[in-house]
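>> received
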Amino acid sequence: MFLVENGHVKRLGADDAPALQSLLERCRDFLELALEAPRPDEASHFLANLPDGKTLEDKFVLGLYVDGTRELAGVIDIVRHWPVKDEWIIGLLLLDPTHRNAGLGARVHWALEGWVRNQGATGLRLVVQEQNPGALRFWQRQGYAITGQTLQRTRTRENVIHLLRKPLDA
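>> returned
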């Protein structure tokens, strides 16, 4: 799909579910903080979960591979034209704990931003759970601004979430 400094990103599918499940298990710390513990079939759910009115053609689950390794180092979940036409929403950008806090997240986002801009996107959106201030700081450093706040309901809890948006220049 696109290159990242010292790595590449490719679209994941059902055949990649075991590698994705392994990554989600390694990222249990984030999932338990922001959402809930990963289920044994979390990868399959992750690959199929869609916002209302969207199809799998609109959803991109992108795997990050760092040069020199075969293991999935991260994942991006992004949906085009949601919640409005020409804007894309990042459902998740998740890195293996061994790849965090070294600038990789910013490099991946920069490459992702260029890719979606080339696809015609005029803005990016995402949400950050209130209990994850580190993620909020990260996204604000990437140029996102808080546009509102709402409640998010998962299977087992309710979170206050910040809504963020970043306009993309042509």
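>> The radius of gyration is 15 Å.
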